[in-house]
Amino acid sequence: MNRFADRIAAEGLSLRRGKTEVLQVNVGKLCNLTCTHCHVNAGPSRKEIMTRETIDRVVDWLAKTDIPIVDLTGGAPEMIPDFRYFVERVRALQPTRKIIDRCNLTILLDRRYEGLAEFLAVKKVEIIASMPCYSSANVNAQRGEGVFEGSIAALRKLNRIGYAVAGDLKLHLVYNPSGPVLPRTQEKLEAEFKRELATNFGIVFNNLYTLTNLPVGRFATYLRNNNRLDAYMDLLIGAFNPATMDGLMCRNTISIGWQGEVYDCDFNQQLGMQWRNGHEMFLWDVDPEKIDNREIMTADHCFGCTAGAGSSCGGALV
């Protein structure tokens, strides 16, 4: 039973793709952290990483399109051996194309990745960084001991090299609740974060994006283990907001996995909801001119993106 599909049908709504504006690439599940809310189940022992051969196929496909944004995520995307090669190839295609790195911040301090922050600055890569709170206790509880302190050091480093200071180096933060509740109002939280980080640590950033925790991956396991999954689903379903539908990221994003397989979003990817056309589809099977108005694959977890003010990779929707 797909309660989400039933709900939007009852509202007289449908969910179909518009023009593709974002190619989001999940380059693998390797990460230096093991966060409790991670829908990817990423961690230090994961072996799934995108190869150079797959990177080349992805970039060759991208070169034939006018998709303006490439969004690199993981895991910690910077940990794959060919991360810099990937960024360099994409940047060489079109100097003005936006490249986003979804960064956990602590990776910028790892000695194995010397010069990474400076490389991102030189290549004009926009950073969207995980920062679930401005207090040490909350961040370390969710992401691991010492992560808050590492994140603060990384943010200071990014500010020193021009992020959120120079106009063309954008630094955004991502907030998600520490438990099974909806995020607070994005605008108010952003003001709070800016005040606290500036006052206590001298840190500046551009925007704060609030994300709802979806019942997928490690967060779903946490909910089941604590007998809170049903209550959380009831919360999401009860907060369904039809006004969020137009802004959902699945309408303008192609999500691909570390092997090049295609999905409507990163959450569908983790649930194995791969595009099919008589067979499982990979990016190089897709004609970008023929996917507008394609029906989007949904399931109950989609209530997470449509609850309250909505949730997307770019934060609240309404």
Detailed description of the structure:
- The protein is an alpha/beta fold and 318 residues long.
- The chain has one domain: TIM Barrel (Alpha-Beta Barrel).
- 31% of the residues lie in helices and 11% in strands.
- It has 10 helices and 8 strands.
- It has an 8-stranded mixed β-sheet.
- Helix 2 packs parallel to helix 3.
Key structural traits:
TIM Barrel, 11% strand, 8 strands, 31% helix, alpha/beta, globular, eight-stranded mixed β-sheet, 318 residues
Summarize the structure.
This protein is α/β, with parallel strands linked by helices and 318 residues long. It contains 10 helices and 8 strands.
The figure for the number of domains is 1
**Uncertain stretches of 5 or more adjacent residues:** none
Measured between the Cα atoms of the first and last residue, the distance is 28 Å
Rg is 19 Å
What percentage of amino acids are in beta strands? 5-15%
| Count of alpha/pi helices | 10
Helix content: 25-40%
User: For the record, what is the CATH homologous superfamily label?
Assistant: Aldolase class I
Q: How are strands sequenced across the largest beta sheet?
A: 6-5-4-3-2-1-7-8
The name of the CATH topology is TIM Barrel
Reading off the top of the CATH hierarchy, the class is best stated as Alpha Beta
In N-to-C order, the SSE pattern is HEHEHEHEHHEHEHHEEH
- Indicate the CATH architecture: Alpha-Beta Barrel
Q: How would you sum up the global shape?
A: globular
Specify the biggest β-sheet: 8 strands, mixed
Query: What is the residue-averaged pLDDT?
Result: 94
How many strand elements? 8
Q: Please identify the structural class as seen in this structure.
A: alpha/beta
